[in-house]
């Protein structure tokens, strides 16, 4: 049996281990703190080793000779780099390292991932910023994910009162909108998650997950009851590393950014790094400051102070005084459950986005892309149908799908297909499916 | 403050000046105008004084910052005094103050003259005036640093005090190498300009004189009418290009010459170029609209050429004249007066406030306005990719304020000697900025010969203060400069150590 070794038992390491072990991988987690290792070991069905992950004896104790994959995700760049190098020397097939400092990943870094033979160098703050920006681009989205190299997007949103699609069944909608290729993958109504069939209806107030070709995204707001939206001014509360990256990305796309930071010294760093953005020295929860700087006129507001409580509070404040789209960075998984009940439009978990990015990269044979949805307990997964697999060459109504899974959209070359009962899957097709975690393996068998 | 250091270095510089005089004398001996002997005599006197000063003192230990500033100021004053000798000995001027004025105007690359009829001067004297420009342009002390290795210790103090701009760049780790490279570029460009002038049919004598005056952004001409005395569009365009080149940071030229052109990446360069071209086009259009030039092909070309010429000449503080701009519309003159304050780029041979300081000032103003709209904003003043450090920013703001105050104060002093306001302020601005032609009675076609001796002394001071960028000179008026340094004991001890 080939092992997966996770070095670092922080939030990222914990959730990676959790997800991998749920998907029947054998996981060994290394952490330098005995208490933390024990805690993780008690909560997850994995083996833990206490020690410095950069030490060979510790790695050997964890079974690195039998490992197929090493994921170095401690909070220290240098440790992750050394673990990566050691793993490489011991011929581990796949190595990922979490690297935050631009000195190591920027263009011109002396030791790039390629030189070192590290398959994936991932910067959590950048991943988070990228995901946040995706969310900001559309007013409606509460979740976003890309599939098939960005040609298909998944978007989660809340259907508004009076929306054109409200109160209609999927079958009716398909007939009404023949030119569109939307697939409704999941509906969250109150506590209930529905993986819908043709007879199911969409109601106002539902949280829905749509798959859409990239070029048809623009019509979604209007169909779901929203005004057209163009992102021009964004206020970022909190000059954390994530906040800085978001502001940088906004500057690059020509969006006006205002960033508020409490610490004066940090403000100077921000002002140095951001030639165009306006840097303000003040408290993100200071309502007077927010109003004076025109939070009400902002197209979007991002709370990125690095503190979940402050982020929740300031997001709620911003929404109350009129910011149009409010996104909070929330790391605590128990808070994440809370978001859909609050007046906050969307949330990003910096750690979860890192976990997702790593999982996307490491998934086995058939799977190329995965998105974990925050509000509901399902995942969106991209498969490539292998020749000779069970799903190939049959009409879909003849395929036995696991009950907790739905096929969303098919990508065949340039063509994007919303599958019907009589659709046949061909070898090489990409398919985006929705599944509850327990069904993922059954799905893999269908495609593998 | 070590007087021995001071006298020693100044003695050495006088030897330099004496060599330059002798070389000019050699050049003048081709013309039988009697000036050659005056130059040789001046050279002799200067050599004797210089060697005496050099041999009775010794340069040991290191230069302190304040010594550096003092040496540069005194050196420039002394050099101007000895530079006046050829005018006096040849009899072209018979009193001391106007002679020193002419020499100081030359070394500081101001280009203001007391001579009403330049054509009447002997060739040797004309050449000497151009040589003073040429030496003063890149800096006589920078030249000394380039040639004499032993000044290298503490050379940065001298270098900083003489090279214009907020923070001088080093092209090489050693200051002497940097000085050598700068002088190399300077000499090379001068050579190219002389050749281009010759190709345009200028005489060798005129070509050399004007090339010296152009590259130094000086302004002395061999004609009373300045460049307007040459009725050739080609010569005007060559002059425009080389005045512009002289106004650009020589470090940029050096990089371009070594295959790494980075003009466009340099924000000061973009600003400087934009100002010159923008003002040039404005002058052209305003002159065409006012009817100063006709709407014919030749008229438009003339308006373009003279507009650009005057824009470049005033901004780079060269002060050449291709057309009598005092006859232009008030709007055009207003623009020219404003350009007098901009000046060349830092690290050029130009005077004035310097483009980078103006740019920083504008940026700072914009950020102050923004600060009023967003009281909590943390704003950085940027030039190019770099943010301007706060101490540098304060220094620049201080410099610009002081510059303006000095112009006004100088203007006020000049009115005490009976000058009208326009002339006084114009002369003051033209002298502090090392430009040359001012306004009113010292305008484009006038000279400074009519001004009384006390007035000339004031202007001499203004030219010196302007060339050495104010702080270098004003430092000497601060009592701390003359107090014993606490670390003196240490440096004294170091100096007393036997030399290796």
Q: What are the defining features of this structure?
A:
heterodimer, A: 448 residues, alpha/beta, Rossmann fold, Alpha-Beta Plaits, 4 domains, six-stranded parallel sheet, 24 strands, globular, B: 500 residues, mainly alpha, 2 domains, two-stranded antiparallel sheet, 3 strands, 64% helix, disordered C terminus
Helices and strands in order:
The complex is a heterodimer of chains A (448) and B (500).
Chain A: E1 3-7, H1 11-22, E2 26-31, H2 34-43, E3 47-50, H3 56-61, E4 67-72, H4 77-89, E5 94-98, H5 102-105, H6 113-116, E6 120-122, H7 124-137, E7 141-147, E8 152-158, E9 168-169, H8 170-176, E10 183-189, E11 192-194, E12 201-202, E13 207-213, H9 220-223, E14 233-237, H10 241-252, E15 256-261, H11 264-273, E16 278-281, H12 287-292, E17 300-303, H13 308-321, E18 325-329, H14 333-336, E19 346-348, H15 350-362, E20 367-372, E21 379-384, E22 405-412, E23 415-417, E24 430-435, H16 440-447
Parallel strand pairs in A: 1-2, 1-4, 2-3, 4-5, 5-6, 14-15, 14-17, 15-16, 17-18, 18-19
Antiparallel strand pairs in A: 7-8, 8-13, 9-12, 10-11, 10-13, 20-21, 21-24, 22-23, 22-24
Chain B: H1 3-28, H2 35-56, H3 65-83, H4 85-89, H5 96-107, H6 123-138, H7 140-147, H8 155-162, H9 175-199, H10 204-215, H11 233-247, H12 250-257, H13 267-290, H14 297-315, H15 330-342, H16 355-373, E1 377-378, E2 382-383, E3 386-387, H17 390-415, H18 421-432, H19 453-467, H20 471-474, H21 479-482, H22 488-496
Antiparallel strand pairs in B: 2-3
Helix pairs in contact in B: 1-2, 1-3, 1-6, 3-5, 3-8, 5-6, 5-19, 6-10, 7-9, 9-10, 9-11, 9-12, 10-11, 11-14, 13-14, 13-15, 14-15, 16-17, 17-18, 17-19, 18-19
